Amino acid sequence: MLQVNNISKTFNPGTINEKKALNGVSLHLNPGDFVTIIGGNGAGKSTLMNAITGVWPVDEGSIILDGANVTGMPEYKRAKYIGRVFQDPMMGTAPDMEIVENLALAYRRGKGRTLKWGVTAKEKEFYKKRLSILGLGLEDRLTAKVGLLSGGQRQALTLLMASLQIPKLLLLDEHTAALDPATAAKVLRISDEIITADNLTAMMITHNMQDAINHGNRLIMMHEGKIILDIQGEEKKNLTVENLLQKFRDVSGEKLENDRMLLSD
């Protein structure tokens, strides 16, 4: 479903602020793969996602999505293939619009616009059914303004919107980092359910090593713009935070500093 082939990205090349964010990264995802990505600050996690979505053009290498070469495709043209949920619950929705209007916008992503009536009764029933999956009672609040929702409710709605038109790839960019632990756990549960129900191919960035271990079928660790660990199968099922840290030390030759990635285990 996704082939990232030897991509590199350097910011501010030739200056004192030069930063090689991605250094020959290759990553292949099969349909239905759910990959969690961890790494310290500046490891290249978000740059990798931004390269896949087209926010940043890569300096070299190629990106193939479901057989199509999207390397040179602008971000807005890739949007119909990719769903993305950001860290900030305020992103990804229109706060002054109703829940039903936000869902309608998401449902029409990548489709042509017409002069037909905005939201049909059939559509509303479809939205209610999808909202009921969240278990938050939002199916009974279709006309509520999204800006009035709590952070957790809004993030769950954004997740639903990102997967409403089944995307080729769902990207979760630290989508629970701004939530309290109980709400984060609920949003992660909903994420698992949606990914499993629709057999989505997904990538999730997290600083929480235990979450990275508990979710998905593959775990990738990045360091200094490279993928240094790719753990899957039985090895991932038996993984603990302690032996993950040991693997990092063995591969990188460094001891992970006491940053957010450690504080979140």
Characterize the structure shown.
This protein has 265 residues and is α/β, with parallel strands linked by helices. It has a domain at 1-81 and 199-265: Rossmann fold (3-Layer(aba) Sandwich). 35% of the residues lie in helices and 23% in strands. It has a 6-stranded mixed beta sheet, with helices on both faces. Helix 5 (151-164) runs parallel beside helix 6 (181-197). It is globular and about 55 Å long.
Number of strands: 10
Q: Helical element count?
A: 10
Report the CATH C-level class of the domain at 1-81 and 199-265: Alpha Beta
Instruction: Name the CATH architecture of the domain at 1-81 and 199-265.
Output: 3-Layer(aba) Sandwich
Question: In CATH, what is the homologous superfamily of the domain at 1-81 and 199-265?
Answer: P-loop containing nucleotide triphosphate hydrolases
Any idea of the CATH topology of the domain at 1-81 and 199-265? Rossmann fold
Distance between the termini: 30 Å
